[in-house]
Structures are given as structure tokens and as C-alpha cells.
Amino acid sequence: MSLLPAASAKCEVSFTVNGHAKKVLAHPMERLLDVLRNDTIEGMAAHALMKLLQESFLECGGAQCGICTPGMILAAVHLLEKKPQPALTDIREGLAGNLCRCTGYMQIFEAVAKAARQRVAQ
């Protein structure tokens, strides 16, 4: 009797991301990274919100040194996918955890709000 799962079996893999429990069913021979969605700023280049967010960040001064910009924009994409018309508190919560030393955050929050307004107007 083998202790390994059958080749056709799926295994439940549990882990946490930012304190939230996640579960994925994976084939035993798959690597975890092969079954998880992993978005990068480069991989999101064709996303419909990217152009709006990039332009808004530039116009509002939300990108200065550029270190936090990829994380801020990715968080903003995911926020606007869930809440197309976010309030300021939604934007603050959606971008929480991304640290910026340059802008003081207000320009970033305004850039996300502006992109949301422009998206709704289209």
C-alpha cells in the first residue's frame, strides 16, 4: 500500500497570504507556483486599467522614485476590479501595506480616484 496519492488525485494545499487563509486543489506532481495566480506589473501590461492608472499616476504625481509604483498600481487594479467606484476609505484600505516614502500617499489616492472616475466616464 502506497502512502502517496494516486496519480489522478488532487491534494488540498493550505497557506496564508497577508493573514488570510487560502486553499488550492493541486495535482501532487504540480508545483505550488504552477497553480497559483501570480500577477506582476509586466504581466498586467495589457490589462484594461493599466493605461488609465499609469496616466493618472503621472498626472497626479503619484509616481516619484518608482520603488512603490508597481505594488501600488497592482493593488489599484485589483481594487478597481472589485469596486469600480471606490470611496477614499476603500482606496486607502485597498492600497494598505504598500509603503511609499516620497508622495505622502495623497497623490497616489487621487490618482486611483481619477482613474476610477475616467473609467466610469468611458
Poorly predicted runs are: none
Overall geometric form: elongated
Number of helices: 5
What do the pLDDT scores average to? Answer: 85
- β-strand percent reads 5-15%
In angstroms, what is the radius of gyration?
19 Å
Largest sheet properties: 2 strands, antiparallel
Element-by-element helix/strand order: EEHHHHH
Number of strands: 2
Structural class: alpha+beta
Describe this structure in words.
With 122 residues, the protein is α+β, with helices and mostly antiparallel strands. The chain has two domains: 1-38, no CATH class; 48-121, DNA polymerase, domain 1 (Orthogonal Bundle), CATH 1.10.150.120. It has five helices and two strands, in the order ββααααα. The chain has helices at 32-35, 48-60, 69-82, 88-95, 106-121; strands spanning 11-17, 20-26. It has a two-stranded antiparallel sheet. A hairpin with a 2-residue loop joins β1 (11-17) and β2 (20-26). The model has no long low-confidence stretch (mean pLDDT 85).
For the structure shown, list the relevant keywords.
122 residues, DNA polymerase, domain 1, two-stranded antiparallel sheet, 5 helices, 11% strand
